[in-house]
Specification:
There is one protein chain. The protein has seven helices and no strands. It is mostly helical and about 150 residues long. Helix 2 (about 35-50) crosses helix 4 and helix 4 (about 70-85) crosses helix 6.
């Protein structure tokens, strides 16, 4: 009987792996095929969700999102949606309130989205300095290259 049980368990394990792969593939395909209209609609829903009372408790983050124009909110929603899809999560589940019966999952996703939005905010805020730094590095490397290529050895 034990060989039969092992065979069945191995079959079940394979089925579960296949199911997980199917779900993962579905999420990636869904994220990839969002049309421009769907992205804008998700961005609008995400913006409304982010600014609604109680969803994002970080006041500075909410103010930053509120100050974004439509293109900025769409870009942020696309970034957040892609990040979520990498973990087989659909951002729409959170922003459309589909997780009401899953409070622990909803809280976890809210924390995940909040932290990712904070990271995006930090990246945007340091962008100007980052551009200046990259330019300076490039200039210094060009200067070094010019000085080493003109030195006769």
């Amino acid at each position: 009987m034990q060989p039969l049980l092992r065979t069945r368990l191995a079959g079940m394990a394979t089925e579960m792996q296949d199911f997980a792969a199917d779900v993962s593939g579905w999420m990636r395909e869904r994220a990839a095929r969002l049309s421009g209209v769907e992205r804008r609609q998700l961005a609008e829903r995400f913006g409304a969700w982010a600014l609604a009372d109680g969803n994002l408790t970080d006041a500075a983050l909410r103010a930053w999102i509120e100050d974004l124009d439509a293109i900025g909110r769409e870009a942020l929603a696309e970034q957040v949606g892609g990040f979520c899809a990498d973990f087989d999560i659909d951002l729409a589940w959170l922003v459309d309130g589909e997780l009401a019966e899953w409070p622990a999952l909803e809280a976890g996703m809210r924390a995940l989205v909040t932290d990712y939005c904070r990271a995006c905010k930090a990246a945007v805020e340091c962008d100007a300095d980052s551009v200046r730094f990259r330019r300076r590095l490039l200039w210094e490397r060009k200067r070094e290259d010019a000085s080493t290529s003109s030195d006769p050895d």
